[in-house]
Amino acid sequence: MKEGVFTIIKGKKVLIKCRSLIKLLAILAVGGLIIFAAIMFIYKPIYSVTLNGEFIGYCTDKTEMQNKINTYMDEGSGENVAFVEINDLPEYKICFLKKGITTDDEGIFNKVISQGKNYYTYYALVEDDKEKLYVKTLEEAEETLEQLKEKKSANASDITIEEKYDTELAKLTSTNDAVSKLYEEKKTDSNRIMLASTNRGVTTRVSTSTKISSKKVNLGIKLIEPVKGIITGRYADISSVRSSAHTGLDIAAPAGTKISAAASGTVVFAGTKGSFGKMVVISHGNGVQTYYAHCSSLLVSKGDTVKQGQAIARVGKTGNATGNHLHLEIRVNGQSYNPQKYLY
Ligand SMILES: [Zn+2]
Question: Of the CATH numbers 3.40.630.30, 3.40.1190.20, 2.70.70.10, 3.40.710.10, which one belongs to the domain with range 230-341?
Answer without folding.
Answer: 2.70.70.10
